[in-house]
Amino acid sequence: MGFDGAAVDYDRFMGRYSAGLSGAFADFAGVEAGQRVLDVGCGPGALTSELVSRVGASSVAGVDPSVSYAASARERYPDVRIEVAPAGALPFEDASFDAVLAQLVVHFMADPVHDIREMARVTRPGGIVAACVWDHAGGTSPLSRFWDVLSATDPSAPSEAALPGTRRGQLGEYLAAAGLTAIAETVLTVRVMHPTFEDWWEPYLRGAGPVGSYIESLDDAGRERLERTLRAEMPAAPFEVTGSAWAARGVAGIDR
After folding, report:
1. Which residues form the Methyltransferase type domain (predicted)?
2. What is the CA radius of gyration of the chain?
């Protein structure tokens, strides 16, 4: 999937959008002072930063399967407990947290229901489990313009539209199947202004995520053709990219 590179590459690519998502997502999950909170799939720490600002570093923990991303998060937030672990095998005791959040993670889970059930396990009874995923299927993610152009120029190219949680209602279904109750869903939207085409395009070349992996698979001529096509299709700079994400939350019960 392209998540083993430098954290700065992810920051430049998706971090510019996910950082803007973090505040609204934490609001939706009801994160507030006095809680102990876990950031599942924390990456370099876009959501971690928001959680620290709300509850303090000593009340935040994070996990990520990428050694390099976890190391970056530890460097940035030395007082936060950051572990290298997948969402499906969290290294915490039952009922350890008041809220467990997964921002832009579910669509990379092989078994979302299993992994969300594991998130619920480490949440106290009555606590909140929440997740959000870009609306790739509906075509309103920050990457949708890129995928639209790519699908027209290379019909065999991969797409993120079929990934778990990218369709309306899927996250709520996963939470319900994992045993959570009082499920609520919403849409979160971010906006990022790009002063130049290069500001938007250059991070795509850094190899992060499925997009980066696809671009790295092209030869020089293929990348040049893709860039020319995108330059012609993108709005004149400066331009704004709007991205929407599905979000769902549920309450953890006593019997899980």
Report:
1. 38-130
2. 18
Task: Decide: helix, strand or coil at residue 89.
Answer: coil
Boundaries of domain holding 28: 7-137+160-190+243-251
63: CATH = 3.40.50.150
Each residue's pLDDT tens digit, 180-225 = 999 999 999 999 999 999 999 999 998 777 888 889 999 999 999 9
Within a domain: residue 149? Answer: no
Q: Is residue 152 part of a domain?
A: no
Instruction: Please give the angle made by the CA atoms of 242, 215 and 156, to the nearest 5 degrees.
Output: 90
pLDDT at res. 248:
98
The answer to whether residue 226 is domain-embedded is no
* Dist. CA 65–CA 63, nearest whole Å: 7
Report the SS3 class of residue 192. strand
Residue matched to tokens 């000593």: 58
Please report whether residue 21 resides in a domain: yes
CA dihedral 11, 16, 22, 23 (to 10 degrees): 140
155-188 residue pLDDT tens: 888 888 889 999 999 999 999 999 999 999 999 9
Number of domains in the chain: 1
Residues shown for the chain: 256
